[in-house]
Fold each of these.
Amino acid sequence: MRLTRVTLFFIVLILGLGFFRLIDYLLQDLEFQTLQATEESMVDTANILAGYVETEGSLAGLSEIFDNSYNRDIEALIFKQLKTNVGLNAYLTDDKGIILFDSGDPKNIGEDFSRFRDIRLTLAGKYGARSSRTDENDKNSSVMFVGAPVHKDGNIVGCLSVYKAQADVLPFVQERRRDIIFATIFIGSGIIILIGAVFIWLFRPIGQLTDYARSITRGERRSKPAVGLGREANTLANALHAMRESLEDRTHSDKYIQTLTHELKSPLAAIQGAAELMDEDMPAADRAHFLENICNQTARCERMIHRLLELSSLEAQTHLEHSHGFDIVALCKKSIGQMTALAEANDVTIKPDLPKRLPYKGNELLLGSALNHLLENAIHFSPKKGKVLLHLENHETEIILTVQDQGEGIPEFAAERAFERFFSYRPDDETKGNGLGLAFVREIANLHLGRVNIFTPEQGGTCAFIALPLIPENR
């Protein structure tokens, strides 16, 4: 998934740079556009006032207009900014640029303003406007000026300029700047989150399917992963699962045909040899012996085929089926009852060491079969008057079920192969086992996500155990 993370990183980086450039452009252009809009309204105001002067021709009337405006109570909420006073002023010059009237600073009356751009260009019949700072060291001290010509008899006889401090406009610019930054960050974050969600939605199932395919390669038993509702991911998951089942079926078929053929050779050869000898004249006792041998070998073949079918059925399961809650202590007592007759026949005693009660959730029938196999093996390997110990212990994370006999123990090489199919270690017993019992136990433990082991402890004998994990619902 490294490529996914790298791809997502570059997408986020490109989007981040793009949104940064967008914010930078919008913020740089915001103040300029706001001032443009303000200048446009000032042009209208200047021309209206110039028209008033042309009509009335009275400085007193112009002064009265501004005095009345400044005395008005204003409470205008404009884009979250409260305006409480008139921020617009005006001055009037003659055709030489000499100040005749100034609503903002009467001390300027009589001053020559012809050098300023708004006056000079307006008196020349052009559009005159300027922006000047009252404090050269303070960029926020700029004042905007817009001039309009005053006509008389078709000639320009003066200039009326309106002026407004940019500081009156800056709060609106700052508010809009905050809105733009917030909106851009919000939209950008939403897009990044959406892209991340899409990547997770697409690539998380791919990661799960990759792990699933690797588990198939390792020969692990895993159920088909839940990959969500995506049609493509589910199609791929179903295809992988179907491929796995097909491969496993073919592999199992080939493997079991080969192993079954190999293992049936010995009993079939014994049956054939005994049958051929029975065609000859022999004492009745010998004939009975050969007939018994045929029956024993036939039973052996039957047990082997039956056990192989059980083992094949277990290995075909990808997850534990028919799981329910039960008392594992009661299961142990039930297995002891089932094995008591075999133990008495071999002059062996089963000694349990069990808690009063231990609830567990799993397949009770399979775990009972696994325990029976371990007890049966322990009984067969125990000496006369020996004891088979059955111990159940509850740890924090798992339940450990241990079966220990007092036999000669199992060699290390045999312990390493004990759970392989058809491996049987019975050095002093003429009746060879089918080598499927412990393989059967291992498959049952695997289905319960547990583990099995067999070894010779320091005190001697053979110890086999099944460790079953305690998932939250079993704790």
Amino acid sequence: VARKLRFLRRRSLEFNAEMNASMNETLNVSGALLVKLFGREKREMAKFADDASRVRDIGVQSAVVSQWFFLSLGIVSAIGTAVVYWGGGHLVLTGVFTIGTIVAFGAYLTQLYGPLISLTNAPVEFAQSMVSFERVFEALDIPTEIKESPDATSLPVAFGNITFDHVSFSYQEEYGDQQWGLTEVTRLGWGADRTTLLKRGKKSNGNGESDVMDLVQEQATDQRWALQDVNFTIEPGELVALVGPSGAGKTTITYLIPRLYDPTGGHVLLDGHDIRSLTLQSLSNNIGMVTQDTYLFYDTIRNNLLYAREDASDAEMVSAAKAANIHDFIAELTDGYDTVVGERGYRLSGGERQRIAIARVILKDPQILVLDEATSHLDSLSEALIQDALQRVMQGRTSLVIAHRLSTILAADKILVMDKGRLVESGTHVTLLANGGLYASLYETQFRNETDVERMKEVEEI
């Protein structure tokens, strides 16, 4: 019974986790919008009904097994009591026992059944509880990828010199006989066999899903290197632009600088220190980053800005908002800085979220700025405002920008051109165009149209 209930308990937790994951995906702002845009309401309702029915069925099955177990214990105690009185009555009639002796036996037997039932039930409850502990320990046993060295050095104020020394990186780095990164998670239960589970614990459904996963893993093995032998140096105060086709490794470079990942090979140096020898807090204090996906908490604009520096004054917060050219917009809102932005900031436009994110990093006042496609979601007017603000903010700071706009590239002191994880070109706009390499090709296909549009605007203004 304990084994059966343990199995049912484990399946119940898995089904509940799967149902909650479906709810989180489809009922958040982005998921609900996607469902409506593609008209998949009935499909999602049927999917949720299926998940909920499995949770219900496994709950009913667990309850039935438990009740049968307790029913069996009750029947045993009832039969025992009946046997005592039936046999005792016969012995009383034959004069062997007195009535008082039989009544005493019945009382003793009742007192004995309580502890016996409790002792019998303890292993069952323990087995079910162990399933919860297994899932907790699964999370606790996940190895920490980024560890701070016990003798790590604190860097109060960085000068901003960044060096990539033969850096290679793979999202599928192997640790012993296991793989971590963009691979399927291997879950290990106590006493369970090693099993690779698909998304949300679903195994192969017989429709070729496992074959698809094998194909994806084979392709991932062929493309395992996100960066290969990358070498460059950014001097303090320089503005460096990262360009290249999609999947070239630009974002990976920006993730290695604040040590969101450790390089598989080579070294990332900050002011001559390997970043693995520095404390994580000092890295965080010296590096400010605006990521591809601007994330705002379901909170007020004020609290989202103060997340960068909780001790910042209102004057400093307003100054940062003005530098990002978002203060005027906030001032026009009914609640001003106390306006709630909604889940992930959905009540704001993409450009407004972007400018709030930039104001947040300005308020942090780091020595190093990393802007990962920070201007890619802005209209022309917003981009002009942001470019003007960033030119002031970047003065005296080391800045690395993933650039998709020609104006950002032309303002850079140095351009790094990435392709398939390798640094293929480095230099200024003029020199790279003269070389006729990948940058010149990207300029012709991606940036030349931008130049033509700017010229047309100038003609119209004249």
Amino acid sequence: MADYLNALAEIISSNVKILGDAYAQDGRKFPSLDEPFAPTKSAEAAAVQEATRLIIAAAAQLTASVRSPLEVLLEQATGVYATVMLSFANDHNVADLLKEAGPDGLDAKEIGKQIGFNGAYVARCLRYLATRHIFREVKPNVFANNRLSSALLKNKPFKDIEADSMTKYDDAPISALISHTTDEGFIGSRSIIEFMKDSKGYVSPLSMSNQDRANLFEWYEKPGHKWRAHRFATAMKAPAKLWGQGAYASVLDWHSLPTGSTIVDVGGSTGEVTMELARAAPQHKYVLQDLEGAIVEAKRRWANEWPEAINDGTVTLEVHSFFEPMPVKADVYFLRAIIHDWPEADCHKILGHIHAAAKSTSKLILLELMAVHACPDELTGGRTIPYPLLANLGLAVGGFITAADMQMLALVDGRERTPGDFEELGRMTGWKLETIKPGPGMAAFIFSKVEV
């Protein structure tokens, strides 16, 4: 046991040194948890990201090893309170109020007065979060922002945030993602076990909880939920904030394609992928497809950000449902975080429509999270993981992906997939998995067409 604990401690110690050296080389100190979050170039370096993952994996495993089983299990069992407290603080704009209060913080009574809650309750809620390093309790019952809570900030003065519920989370994708997760995700989670036992004709646990047989996206279109749909669209921009720009353009050598090749961004919303690809390789033609509401938003976005691309024909905006036959014979079909949103039968239908339209030389790119087993396997066993860490690096990598997998189950009866799952999905729909290109957040699964 001592060797096991020493091995974990050594992973932490050696990789903390890597972090310190990297920041020192850039003339910086490692950011304090007590300071507001600010992205740094040092954090983007590959060596720093790898060291960070190893520290997280080892620290979490060390904690699980030395704590009593009862404490570990109770921490997990009471995790629902973390969801509720985070929802309370985020949706009531506590971080925004504390930003205006400054580093000295604000008394819980005053916070309660500003947001309409009893101050004693506020103090207990924020102390729960501060104990878990979200916010700081700078004096008894006085709270201030820190590195984690400042990531919840919205892009407006506190007094203006609630003026329009539709735009509350605009330009604040991390806050929008947390709100979406603690709202729809929480509602859906209540019915996961019952749904897995017997779906009773509901399309997802969320559908079961709501006693409504509409899927998530149909539910968003119903009266009273348009603001949720708008928040969801904002939340989906968070990966770019978390993982940085350039992830889409790097998945393929776009300049190796013949000039004038056609790339379809399937279900591309307002064009996050299309805009990045078209700027990186403007010699090609791009088709951005989505439902009418998304394309209306896309027209506004492109008119504001890059109207020339529309006017000169580099980019075409097209209303299309991927559950209908694909109208474009393209060289590349790009789907970002689409497949995990749908049950298996629907995924077969989506990829089947694309297969029917594709050329013999077409490529299919699925940009998705890559689930990894907690034990070594044949497809992902090439990477050497330091002893005694889990094969998926536990909370450092597998933690986020397994949580996302549960979110997909709760909201849409979708799933995150392992490489083997993607290989099987391709085999069932006429696509051969050729390459997996891991990225900073998602992996690109690149398929070629197989005639069936």
Amino acid sequence: GERVTKNNLQIVVRRHAYINRPHISDLDEVDKVSNVSEKRRDWGNAINTSIFYGRTEELATVKNWVITDRCRLLGVFGIGGIGKTAFANKLAEQVQAEFTLFAWKSLRYAPTVETMLSELVSFLTNQAITALPSDFDRLLAMLIQVLKQSRCLIVFDNVESILRSGETTGHYIEGYEGYGQLFRQISEEHHQSCLILTSREKPSDVLPPESSDRMVRSLQLSGLNVEEARHLLNKELAFTPEISKLIDLYCGNPLALKFVSILISHRFNGNIQAFLDQEMNVFEDIRELIDQQYSRLSDLEQQVMYWLAIVREPITIDNLRQNIVHIVSKSQILESVISLRWRSLIEKNANSFTQQFIVMKYMTNRLIDMAFKSTIEHNPEFLMSYALVENRAEDYIRETQIRHILQPLTKRLVAHYGTVETLHRELHSLLDRLHDRQTSIGYAQANIINLLKSSQEDLAIDDDHL
């Protein structure tokens, strides 16, 4: 009765073959499994966590899941830079004594499931890869047998590398669906081992945190608190009066704080307030980090991200739907919002959703970049889809949108065209093109009028200075 599509054909065939396979004890491979009672460790390319601060409560919770509850599958999720790899590494260090075998595997370069299983089974059974079967089903059967015979701890790092981009999160790249069967098998079969996954995105096979299944657990890793984050910063910054504001601004993201502390020390002589007053753009290292996640979003997820940056405060799904130009259903918006939460790109606040500062800053910069490109190329599609300033918003929201979106875009356009007069000429030309269109123009006309007003105000300010 299972529905078969071109995307899941391979995995369905594999699953039914596995169900109808001979019992594990009848397989030749069982005889090949060596004595695995001797403790062995393969840390692979795991990072050094000798310097590690905070996460005391999270570690205590997860250690209880692994040791006391004996969970079989544990997912550690969070935005880039939040410390998922370091957390999994520290957890493994603290619980490894409970396990006979330990293996750390990185999926960063998306190895095939057969390659990963061959390497893993080779280590766990202490056999050469050449002595192992090459097909997925027999390798998976051998792995499950080892997980039953011995208490094994396995970490798969960077699981997002095997998930598809361009759509809502959780689906595997074509040809990598076997990982889904691997995760399901480990979570469902009775054994004494544990597989830990770290990922920026949640695979569809891992249950949400509120699930009551004690065998499959998920931890959404958030930022460090002020006291924990202090230890990551340069000593001259750690106890300055403005440090709490800086840490809150970057939501305790360890990697972001590391980058920003270096920047403040080198370019602002350790003056945090001077850095905050500059309202600097998201610097390159962090931008690249979020770029990687943004590039994986579906079209609707990208639209939601832009609107959250425009609105700049928590917004409900109904209001999000009203803002989006193209007709979308409430269920489509909800699906995208859930997916973005599991990508750790947005946060829930009661019945509303918003972005962390660092993500909102990134999306604001991206919004300005796209609006600039749309304007100078006389291609109004982007300007039609998003409001630079919401004319019906509360005054304080409009003022924030003008300050963070409209004014920076206006200054960039004036710099591009050389004079305000030239900019006005180009904007009026774009307006004329809109009037010739037979279809809806969305927010484009209001955006152009706001740019005309904003550039005129900048010209008046410049005249006053003169």
